[in-house]
Model the fold of this input.
Amino acid sequence: MKVEDESYYRLFPISLGKQLSNKGAYIYLLLLFKSDYNTGESNVLLETLSEEAGYDTDTISGYLHKAKGYVDITRQFIKAENGQPKTKNFYKVHIPSKDFIIVSRSFLELHFDNLTLKEETGIKGFILLVKCICLNCCNLTFYSLREMAARLSLSYGTIQKYMKKCIELKLIKPHKGCYRITLDCFNKGNTNYFPKGTPQLYKEIYNTIDLFCQTKGLETPPYKRELIGQIAVEYPYTEQDLKQANDIELIKRNSVKFQLAQRLPNLNEAVNSLNYFVKVLTNKDYIIPPKKEPQLFIM
Done:
């Protein structure tokens, strides 16, 4: 996926969240923003990354080498200012085509009072890892701290420590068995994104649900065509169709916005699937049929 402003976003591979510590993840993100958006190439100095992360160059280099499989690092001899040869790292990060999170530069620009650069690196790296195990396209995870420890390269004690700090700083908010990242720094380039060929009616229904969730302070469940399609069967009119209708009762009956307000006036619990809204709006559940296995014929 290509975003509009290549200088403002980078794609962080979700699977890397299982391989790196929080500090390593943030240092890798710094490298991403110092790399070419299209080629992944970078000749950034270790000293530059050191200044932004708060760690010495040897530590920075060590963390980047732990990202094996996600970045190629080559050492070359170059001429120093005094004319003598010296070695320098050159990088080529692997740009993911799927299973990534989109991070805006504003995440790097976050700073917190009374914290050192090292402490900020640890906190922001922790948030990045939590984002990697959130539900698709949202900032919400239902994993407990122990379940997070099983899915990340962090101990339970480390996760406990950073989660407590993030909650104190109001960067993560616990809510009835889940955790929600409060920062507006992720998936910016994926806003209102729909697969090619998505009908206008489906987009309008999902965007209406999205806006409704935002007004309730909730994360919107990820888009699924099959589930939105079930709602569309019962609500077949686009916004333009309803604007042209003269029948008030028909408009109320077929307006997803009106029906959500009527049926869910006090919604305050996290919703993790669009099937919840299918049931609310159509009075029935929908089970997505399993994919059929291809049949094998033996001759």
Summary: The two ends are 43 Å apart (CA to CA). The mean pLDDT is 87.
